[in-house]
Design brief:
- The chain is an alpha/beta fold.
- The protein is built from 16 helices and 7 strands.
- The chain has 2 domains: about 230 residues, Glycerol-3-phosphate (1)-acyltransferase (3-Layer(aba) Sandwich); about 60 residues, no CATH class.
- It starts with 11 loop residues before the first helix and ends with a helix.
């Protein structure tokens, strides 16, 4: 067995057998009916059984699926900054995280369109418990991050993930995507967890683990949805947190979030590459700070880049003005946009519940607050 067998994607040599294993699964048939509505089942199945690499699977099936999702549930995707990236070069993309599947799928679609190396992407193993989803994620070049661990088990799992990421970037020349924090941001307040950065350095040998960041090309990425398709689904967890209660997910909650993220209304989407942090990393590493302080400084830098690259939509400005009971940003939206946003909010939550109303608005307003902080 390989060191990484418990978390890695399939190898190309395993791809065809994995495809044949799920070829008759009703969930795959539903996906393909959505992606290729005019195709016969026999046609796409024939294409699949003749697929022998992860890249071919991603390009011929996942990529058209992403395009169909954009067509059906969004008003289009805009991008920026990809011209700063070079072909045949591996990058560590650290991104804010809104949607379970789409964030990485949209990034890979853009990398493909720009002739760049696709990523292997981190995904929580809690999201791929169903056999079909586990197989599909491995075909889509995801590697698993084990959730719910503590103590020694957590350390060993983090060391394994760190070693896999290092191998992908420095040995295989494969780009890697990871979120800036564990799980999706529930309140719109995107902040990099120092623990995520520390995990990345665990496989670095020597007395200066921060030196790992000098060996790689670190790229902060911002993704912004005009409407978060899972906004209302995040409310129960925020409510429990406000009551200092432990939040327990329902049995199919992760799967429901996954589906809602794919088919729910998003309006416009923007994906921004925020440069390569090479000189900045060298400066931090050359300082006399402690390893922990270096990670804090890097986390703050990543935050600032992500906040500045986040595309602020009318929904963000409307929510900010509603929370502050002002018209500070009224020039950034129309009365029609304001009415549409508030109508959507009123349909989704109990408007007489002050906490839920404020939480919903804060989810959209926080990116405005963070942008303001980033330019001080």
């Amino acid at each position: 067995m390989s060191q990484f067998d418990s978390i890695r994607p399939f190898y190309d040599a395993e791809a065809n057998a994995a495809i044949r294993k799920i070829i008759d699964d009703p969930m795959l048939e539903a996906m393909m009916s959505f992606t290729f509505p005019t195709d016969t089942r026999e046609h796409w199945k024939d294409l699949m059984v003749h697929t022998h690499s992860l890249r071919d699977f991603q390009i011929n099936f996942i990529y058209p699926g992403v395009q169909k999702v954009l067509e059906k549930s969004s008003d289009g995707l805009s991008t920026g900054g990809f011209e700063q990236l070079e072909p045949n070069t591996a990058y560590l993309f650290i991104s804010n995280h809104r949607d379970i599947i789409l964030d990485t799928s949209l990034l890979n679609a853009c990398l493909y369109e720009n002739g760049l190396v696709l990523t292997t992407s981190a995904i929580g193993d809690n999201l791929i418990q169903k056999p079909f989803l586990h197989t599909l994620s491995r075909l889509n070049r995801n590697f698993a991050i084990k959730r719910g661990l503590q103590g020694r088990a957590l350390l060993e799992s983090s060391q394994l993930a760190s070693a896999y990421i290092r191998k992908s970037l420095l040995t295989e020349n494969r780009s890697v995507w990871t979120a800036q924090r564990e799980g999706r941001t529930k309140d719109g307040n995107d902040a990099t967890q120092r623990g995520v950065l520390k995990m990345l350095t665990l496989a670095e040998e020597g007395r200066n683990p921060f030196g790992f960041f000098e060996k790689i090309k670190l790229v902060p990425v911002s993704i912004s949805y005009e409407y978060d398709p899972t906004d209302v689904l995040k409310m129960p967890e925020l409510l429990a947190k406000s009551r200092d209660e432990k939040y327990v997910k329902s049995e199919n909650e992760d799967f429901l979030n996954l589906l809602r993220g794919i088919i729910g209304t998003k309006k416009r989407i923007h994906l921004q590459v925020n440069g390569i942090l090479e000189e900045e990393v060298k400066t931090i590493n050359a300082s006399e700070q402690s390893p922990g302080d270096k990670l804090e400084q890097l986390a703050a830098l990543i935050d600032r880049k992500i906040w500045q690259g986040y595309r602020l939509w009318p929904s963000n400005y409307i929510a900010h003005d509603q929370l502050s009971q002002s018209s500070t940003y009224a020039e950034h939206y129309t009365e029609a946009e304001k009415n549409a946003f508030l109508q959507r909010m009123n349909q989704k939550i109990e408007t007489h519940n002050e906490f839920l109303t404020k939480s919903f608005l804060a989810m959209y307003a926080n990116p405005v607050n963070n942008y303001e902080k980033s330019i001080l």
